Amino acid sequence: MAKPKKRYICQACGSVSHRWQGQCPDCAEWNTLREDVPATVFSQKHDLSSGGRAVEFVQLDAPGEKLERRKTGLAEFDRALGGGLVPGSAILMGGDPGIGKSTLLLQAAARIAKDNCSTVYVSGEEAAGQVRMRASRLGLADAPIKLAAATSVRDILTTLNSMEPPTLLVIDSIQTMHSDTIEGAPGTVSQVRGCAFELIRYAKENGVALVLVGHVTKDGTIAGPRVLEHMVDVVMSFEGERSHQYRILRALKNRFGAVDEIGVFAMEGKGLQEVSNPSMLFLSGRETPLAGSAVFPALEGTRPVLIEVQALIVRLQSGATPRRAVVGWDNGRLAMLLAVLESRCGLNFSSAEVYLNVAGGYRLSDPAADLAVAAALVSALADKPLPTHSIWFGEVSLAGEIRPVAHAGLRLKEAAKLGFTSGCGPQDVANSSQLKYRGIRQLANLVDQVMASA
Ligand code: TYD
Ligand code: MG
Question: Which residues are the signal sequence here (predicted)?
């Protein structure tokens, strides 16, 4: 018999290679390839066109049962889920270790349990006592959650099958689970996939909302949640800087709702607090205007969030290569913007170090932030503060033109609501707010405006 060919599976993305490589050719992660035993062909019957059972068809337009959503009661969690938990659905909750996934799920589970719905929380990482300690710290010690510390999927499913199915089942985390029918240590791709498959099947058959926690690790020592993305209905990502208080819950995939909604939380001494009005979150709240600071009205799904962009320019005396450092924005985009400011507006950044920071640990990806970044840079270069209570938005083209952006009206309205009095952005914006709006055509107009200001 021919020797079975070796194959290697990337623990981060699940792609298969036939030789070992240091870097995965698909997802470009390093040191993530592990040897895998290929599945043996159990059946000699290769012809699949007969011998099976008949599949039952139903009409698409047949009256079906309506999708009932269960609100968890944590409004920000429900919002990110698109309205609440769907029975029989599987949710993958990804995020860096220590970001607050267990805390969030314990809080959500407690809300549901207190609502007279049975909730099972299986922890593969912490002993039941540790989870109980966390619960009492969160003030949830009296929540009737069924708690278990277990890692064997066989034990878990045997137990669950002998009782009434719960409304919510949390598995924390899928990377600690292990199935005795599959070879390999917990956390390998085949274990993670196999365990998730069995748990998801249980959830679908019993109408249980299942949440699988999945850690994201950079070094690939455990299989990343990406190998599960196609198996689950909803992929959520819990993000934030560990050194900052704020956490954003985002849906990356949702079979039952939109993916552009976010939930915002603040990690405090007594767990995660909901932040229902995040628009002011990323402003520094300073009263005196400072050169190099501009406010950008960002949009998170349908929610406007005002964000402060800060720039610092340091003139170099010597001929050393000047540094450009960016936190919370794209490096390449800063280089582009500096090039446009130099070539189209006649400014000179060549002998200056440029630092750019987005306040509050927020990450900007909206191209509409270009104009706010440009305003911060010009203000820092000229050492002139921008007018207080003003906002800036618009995409900057390589020709130095200000291009229109989505939802300009919504951005202006939210800023006006929060006490901002003036705005600057692309031309031809329908402004129905109280704000004094100035549409500009060229980036050079912005430079003139900043230089002219007192
Ligand atoms: P945790 O939920 O254990 O993270 P994960 O499950 O994603 O690994 O959260 C861990 C961090 O949260 C921990 O470093 C301490 C912090 N924390 C608080 O600041 N306040 C709290 O009330 C709790 C429970 C945790
Ligand atoms: Mg945890």
Answer: none
